[in-house]
Design goal:
Number of strands: 0
Number of helices: 5
Structural class: mainly alpha
Shape: elongated
Largest sheet: none
Distance between the termini: 17 Å
Number of domains: 1
Radius of gyration: 16 Å
Length: about 130
């Protein structure tokens, strides 16, 4: 269980840090990343920024065995799903986007679901161990 906790924390820290850096790079146009990204969808960028911050907080909470991580990660899934549905509406209304945005959102949703389930598992194991 300790290995799962450490791996989850590392994955969330890495992915959260990368997400925050990349989204801020687009929003603030650091290193000309905005131009390299092409036709980005701004509400997706902001959703990814919020989720990146949630990943970083959740990494710390999982490491510290605090149950809030599972709730925050579940919130992150909700944010991503709402953003993905909005992206589909945006696409149907002939909005300009990159195909990689759709693929990245699907990956991010799957990644978040897996780590949310892991957080629920760790929380369950932690509560079970504390009852004895």
């Amino acid at each position: 269980m300790k290995a799962i906790k450490i791996i989850s924390s590392i994955l969330l820290t890495f992915f959260g840090g990368l997400s925050v850096f990349m989204t801020l790079s687009i929003i603030l146009d650091w290193f000309d990343i905005r131009e390299k990204e092409g036709n980005y969808v701004l509400f997706i960028v902001y959703a990814n920024l919020v989720c990146g911050i949630i990943y970083l907080i959740s990494a710390w909470l999982i490491y510290k065995k605090i149950d809030w991580a599972k709730t925050l990660l579940a919130l992150s899934i909700a944010i991503l799903l709402v953003a993905f549905v909005a992206l589909q509406v945006y696409i149907k209304n002939e909005g300009i986007y990159e195909e990689k945005t759709v693929k990245a959102m699907i990956f991010r949703i799957a990644f978040t679901i897996i780590l949310t389930l892991t957080a629920f598992y760790l929380s369950y194991k932690n509560q079970k161990n504390n009852n004895y």
